[in-house]
């Protein structure tokens, strides 16, 4: 069974993934893969530097994430250009990893954490899609605190994604992460039981 896990930025996908991994699931994390393709030596980083200029790199050749984030999250055209460079490689790597995990351990639950699952039209890869939900205001508050962003910067990042209410409507299953961690843990336990994995 392969489950797609998504939600909005800072809605708690990593928090829920970690709880599922604790219960015994295996995880493919699109954010980790997205970081790997932006490491020095990777052709995707080279293409991004060619497109956006050397200013997105530190002198040692590593990506200045804050700089690139500043450029793309306030310019939809630049964001689309970046997506066109990064997404094919990220998508391919996600598929390779989830299918090889499935071959290795066909009975174990595989969770694929993808922030942009709906935006990228990846629904058909999964048996079921779980959305980790919090209301928009809470998303903004948690994002501002975690990434030390201004309200304006946080809103720009949210606006680069599909609205969380729309994602909630598309979900097969919803985990509400707007309460405390214990409340989320309780829901993860119910979800796990429902899959018959206990
Ligand atoms: C622009 C970059 C350098 C900003 O890095 P930064 O460290 O500030 O953010 P980080 O990578 O941790 O992403 C945090 C969250 O931002 C959101 N986000 C990231 N990229 C995008 C995007 N292209 N479109 C919409 N939301 C995005 C996601 O919810 C993600 O979980 C980085 O996000 C990047 O390389 N993005 C392109 C690759 C990509 O699309 N990744 C997204 C998921 S696969
Ligand atoms: N139930 C909760 N109560 C309070 N804070 C929480 C809760 N769940 C998550 N957080 C905090 O909110 C922030 C966002 O959570 P998390 O990193 O899991 O979100 P995410 O969806 O994986 O984010 P991203 O889209 O950026 O990858 C973190 O700082 C986390 O510690």
From TrEMBL:
Transmembrane segments: none annotated. Its EC number is 2.7.1.24. It comes from the Bacteria. Its main location: cytoplasm. One of its GO terms (molecular function) is kinase activity. It catalyses: 3'-dephospho-CoA + ATP = ADP + CoA + H(+). Keywords: ATP-binding, Coenzyme A biosynthesis, Cytoplasm, Kinase, Nucleotide-binding, Transferase. It is an enzyme of class 2 (transferase). Pfam families: CoaE. HAMAP family: Dephospho_CoA_kinase. Belongs to the CoaE family. This is Dephospho-CoA kinase. It comes from Paenibacillus odorifer. The lineage of its organism: Bacteria, Bacillati, Bacillota, Bacilli, Bacillales.
């Amino acid at each position: 069974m392969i489950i797609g896990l998504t939600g909005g930025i800072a809605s708690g996908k990593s928090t829920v993934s970690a709880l599922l991994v604790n219960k015994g699931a295996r995880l493919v994390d699109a954010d980790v893969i997205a970081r790997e393709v932006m490491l020095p030596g990777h052709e995707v980083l080279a293409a991004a530097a060619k497109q956006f200029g050397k200013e997105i790199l530190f002198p040692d050749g590593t990506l200045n994430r804050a700089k690139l984030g500043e450029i793309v999250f306030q310019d939809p055209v630049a964001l689309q250009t970046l997506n066109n460079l990064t997404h094919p490689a990220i998508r391919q790597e996600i598929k390779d990893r989830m299918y090889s995990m499935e071959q290795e351990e066909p009975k174990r639950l595989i969770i694929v954490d993808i922030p942009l699952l709906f935006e990228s039209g990846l629904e058909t890869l999964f048996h079921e899609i779980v959305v980790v939900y919090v209301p928009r205001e809470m998303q903004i508050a948690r994002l501002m605190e975690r990434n030390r962003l201004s309200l304006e910067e946080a809103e720009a990042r949210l606006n680069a994604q599909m609205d969380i209410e729309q994602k909630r409507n598309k979900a097969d299953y919803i985990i509400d992460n707007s309460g405390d961690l214990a409340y989320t843990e309780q829901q993860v336990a119910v979800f796990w039981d429902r899959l018959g994995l206990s």
